[in-house]
């Protein structure tokens, strides 16, 4: 059996074994042998919704088998499953939008390591429930086979970002004004629904930021983020 076929079989078998086992994020500082107090909602989910005591727990880039004790009070962390973490080292900077929850969900599924809200001149949705966004990121990580949850940073102003090593979704690129990504870029910036202002475009250009085209159609910001992330993952 060739290596690629063997790897495919291993992945297939893992999916079959794991598909009905709940994946739960329980924090970044976990390791085999730990006994962790089970949050009430997790204990209820396992015993009353899933009707089982075994689970897969993850955090900090690792994934472990685990069980809920007979009293339903503690999670006993078992062996490391050795499942590789598909999380990338990409940072997403984005202007908050009305559908920020969808953007967070998509970015988490695509493996970004860090998510940084940026207040631009045209940003409208500035009052976001960031605790809810963290919960959405956690749920997306549990469902997408990641071993970590992306960090959601404190919002920054556009002027506070280092623009010199960043790619950004540039609507001007659809009409010829574009630059090739010649170095490995690990950060991408998505503007607000109203786009970047003239002064922000000037700042990006002067800093040497790389404008990338997302096509000639107008995209929703959450889809633009997904496409831009995929462009710098290539």
What tags apply to this protein structure?
single chain; about 230 residues; alpha/beta; Ribosomal Protein L25, Chain P; Alpha/beta knot; 2 domains; seven-stranded parallel sheet; five-stranded mixed sheet; about 30% helix; disordered N terminus
Characterization of the model:
The structure is a single chain. This protein has 234 residues and is an alpha/beta fold. It folds into 2 domains: 3-80, Hypothetical PUA domain-like, domain 1 (Ribosomal Protein L25, Chain P, Beta Barrel), CATH 2.40.240; 91-233, Alpha/beta knot (3-Layer(aba) Sandwich), CATH 3.40.1280. 31% of the residues lie in helices and 21% in strands. It has 6 helices and 12 strands. The protein has helices at residues 3-18, 40-49, 100-109, 130-143, 198-207, 221-233, and strands spanning 23-25, 35-37, 54-59, 62-68, 74-80, 91-94, 114-119, 151-152, 156-157, 167-169, 187-190, 210-212. Strands 6, 7, 8, 9, 10, 11 and 12 form a 7-stranded parallel β-sheet that branches. A 5-stranded mixed β-sheet has the order 1-3-4-5-2. Strand 3 and strand 4 (62-68) form a beta hairpin. The two termini are 29 Å apart.
């Amino acid at each position: 059996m060739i290596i690629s076929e063997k790897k495919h079989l291993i992945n297939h078998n893992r999916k079959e074994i794991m598909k009905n086992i709940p994946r739960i994020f329980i924090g970044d500082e976990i390791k085999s042998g730990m006994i962790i107090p089970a949050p009430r909602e997790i204990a209820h989910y396992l015993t009353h919704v899933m009707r089982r005591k075994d689970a897969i727990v993850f955090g900090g880039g690792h994934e472990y088998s685990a069980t809920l004790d007979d009293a339903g009070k503690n999670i006993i962390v078992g062996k490391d499953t050795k499942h590789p973490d598909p999380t990338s080292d990409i940072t997403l900077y984005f202007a908050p939008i009305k559908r920020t929850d969808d953007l967070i969900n998509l970015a988490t599924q695509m493996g970004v390591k860090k998510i940084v809200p940026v207040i631009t001149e045209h940003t409208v949705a500035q009052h976001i429930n960031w605790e809810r966004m963290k919960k959405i990121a956690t749920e997306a990580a549990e469902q997408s086979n990641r071993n970590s949850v992306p960090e959601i940073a404190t919002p920054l102003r556009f002027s506070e970002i280092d623009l010199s090593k960043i790619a950004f979704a540039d609507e001007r690129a659809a009409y010829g004004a574009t630059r090739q990504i010649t170095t490995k870029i690990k950060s991408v910036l998505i503007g607000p629904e109203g786009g970047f202002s003239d002064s922000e475009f000037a700042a990006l250009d002067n800093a040497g930021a790389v404008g990338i085209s997302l096509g000639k159609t107008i995209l929703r910001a959450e889809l633009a983020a997904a496409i831009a992330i995929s462009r710098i993952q290539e």
